[in-house]
Amino acid sequence: MTEARGSAGLNGEAYPPGTPCWVSLMVHGLAATQEFYGSLFGWEFRPGPQQLGPYVRALLDGHEVAGIGQLPPDRHLPIAWTPYLASTDVDLTAEMVRHCGGTVGVGPLDAADAGRLAVATDPSGAVFGIWQAAAHLGTTITGVPGTPAWNELFTRDTVGVAKFYESVFGYEQEPLASPDVDYVTLRVKGRPVAGVHGVGRALPRDRGPHWLTSFEVADTDKAVTRVTDLGGHLLKPARDTPHGRVATVVDPEGAVFSLVHTDR
C-alpha cells in the first residue's frame, strides 16, 4: 500500500486509463452476501446490468462503490474481489493483453448502456477486469469508510508481471528501494494507483497470484470483530504499517479482502 489516493475519476469524468475504477465480486449466495457487506460497510443495493446473471451495485450514501453478482449454480469459480482497470477502448486493451502474454476469459461485451467490459488474466494467472465507461464511470466516492482504498497484486516476483501491466496500460513503475521487499508502485500521470508485491514462496498455494482489494474502515480492529460476528473470519491479524492499520479477512463465501484505516 502506498500514500493516499486522489480523486481522479470522481468528478463526473472517466477515470484515466489504467486506474482501478471499480471492484466486483461474483458469488453463489447473492442475498446472503448483500446482508454481510451491508452490515459490515453500511452498503445499500440496487440492480445493475444483468447480462452475466443477477447483479447489484452497492451504494454508500447514494454513491456507487462496488458490484456484486451471482454465479450460475454450475460455475465453481474462485470467489474473489476483482478490480476493473479503466480503458478508453476495451477491445484494443484486450488485444494488448493477448499480445503481451495474458488471456481474455470474458468479453469484450457491452453491459447495457453502462459501458463495455472484459475479464482477463495476466501471464501469472491473476484475474482482473477492464472497463470502458459509458453511463457508468465506476466508483464515485473514495476516502471514507466503506469505499475501496487500494488494489494490490500479490505474485511471485514483480519483474515480468509489472512489465506486462506497464505494456498494456502504460503505467509508470516505481520500484521500492529496498533489498528485502520486492514491491512496485504503478502510477498514472505520476499518481499512485496500484501496487505489485512479489512475495516469492510466501504466495498462498491455494490461491496463486491474485489481486487483493482493501476497503477503508473507521477502526480496523472493530471492523475485524464485525467480520467474525457476521460469519467471516480473520486471515491476517491487524497490524500497523506506514500507511495505516491493516487486517486481512475472508467473507462467508471465501472472498479475501483487507480492511484498512488509512493514516491521513
From TrEMBL:
Residues 19-133, 147-262 form the VOC domain. This is VOC family protein. Gene3D superfamilies: 2,3-Dihydroxybiphenyl 1,2-Dioxygenase, domain 1 (3.10.180.10). CDD domains: SgaA_N_like. InterPro entries: Anthracycline_SecMetBiosynth, Glyas_Bleomycin-R_OHBP_Dase, Glyoxalase_6, VOC_core.
